[in-house]
Amino acid sequence: MKTYDLLHFIDGQWTGNQDETIEVKDPATGELVGQVASGGHKETAAAIDAAHEALEKWSGKTAQERATLMRKFIQVVQENRDELAELMTREMGRPLTESQGEVDYALSFIEWFAEEARRIYGRIVPGKSETHRIQVIKQPVGVVAAVTPWNFPASMITRKLGPALAAGCTFIVKPAEQTPLSALKLAEWAVEAGIPKGVFNVVNCRKPQEFTETIMQDMRVRKISFTGSTEVGRIIMRQSAEQIKRVSLELGGHAPFIICEDADLDRAVTAAMASKFRNSGQTCVCANRFYVHEKIYEPFLEAFAKKVAQLKMGNGLEPDTDVGPLVDHESYKKVARQVEDAVAKGATCLVGGKGTEANDRDVYFFEPTLLADMNEEMLLMNEETFGPVAGVQKFQDDDEVIRWANHSPFGLAAYLFTQNVSRGLRMAEKLEYGIVGWNDGVPSTAQAPFGGVKQSGIGREGALEGIEEYLVTKYISLNL
């Protein structure tokens, strides 16, 4: 199987050296997938220089020209779809079919924002006198720096890259240390598609602080877009304050999944499976705590347990695998700790509950797990899991479950299942979350605004709101 040996991708070319490297290993086997050069202040500064140099040329292109090149980029990536999907599975362990789906999802952001490029409208406003005119225009914010996570190596980049390119911005990304290879290949294919050199740059850093320190100190970088933990988001927000850089933060989640007694049970179970166990539960919007009305609690548990027990755990490259490995030992320890805590406090383990460690190879699997009889004292009901564990608690009335659901510092995604429109609207409006999936377990899509409230972040990605994050508004006052 192919092994990758890559550098940084700056100003349209491979640059750097292999004096210090980051090894990328398959979390399902421990085998080496490849290695990349590790950089820091010097490489980040070079990427800023390249992005700044390319900015005038790229922003000066017409919206149609940028859109045409973005579509060519889509075409090149589609031609390499199988390689990118396999690479993502080897980098972070998920089933190959899910990686293939992510390639399509990632490209949907490029496609959507290629269309939005032509809809960056200004306006003419009546002036204050006969000779006065007011013109409002939109312009690109400038050089953008992005920091992306390992769990969606392609789509978390394109969700930021798409609107940046469409708006006329240039782009620098520091991918996660576990999954840099996908990012580097995307940047290579962008240049192959004709996107000018310096528009899309990738810097690999074993020490992320060197990347952030450099971009925060350089006034040419005008926007930071980050997806990751709330703890790191706080640091980025504080650092950006010095130069008043624009910031978008997509941070942690702790999604409640509410199933009312009038819900379509089959639909709720299907959605619960998709939301909870996709990517081995390692998504920021996956269901973390299930609240099921007492009237359908037992029937739901029976149906859900049957489905969970059918999931096959294994190497993502094997065609019948449903749930892959956890990304690292810290993730494994957190999942195991939450399960142990729940059982110790009275939870009943209906399916799974055990993990497998191979510390010598850095390989960590945890069985798809279903816990019943949960309560609010348990860790799993109070902190994000990021693993294939579903905890189920029964509730009696709507006010009670809304209170439980909102009792969290996070507010990214919530899920609600009811067939009653009036009830659903009331509950959806009361849920303190940026995204509510009503009878929908997978609400994310390029044409919808994605983002949270409270400590789950600021700003939106996707939809019309997504491109506004990369634009500044200018008012031109004209006297004739």
TrEMBL record:
Keywords: Oxidoreductase. InterPro entries: Ald_DH/histidinol_DH, Ald_DH_C, Ald_DH_CS_CYS, Ald_DH_N, Aldehyde_DH_dom, Aldehyde_DH_Superfamily, Succ_semiAld_DH. SUPFAM superfamilies: ALDH-like. Residues 14-476 form the Aldehyde dehydrogenase domain. Pfam families: Aldedh. It comes from the Bacteria. One of its GO terms (biological process) is gamma-aminobutyric acid catabolic process. GO terms for molecular function: succinate-semialdehyde dehydrogenase (NAD+) activity. PANTHER family: SUCCINATE-SEMIALDEHYDE DEHYDROGENASE, MITOCHONDRIAL. NCBIfam families: SSADH. Belongs to the aldehyde dehydrogenase family. This is Succinate semialdehyde dehydrogenase.
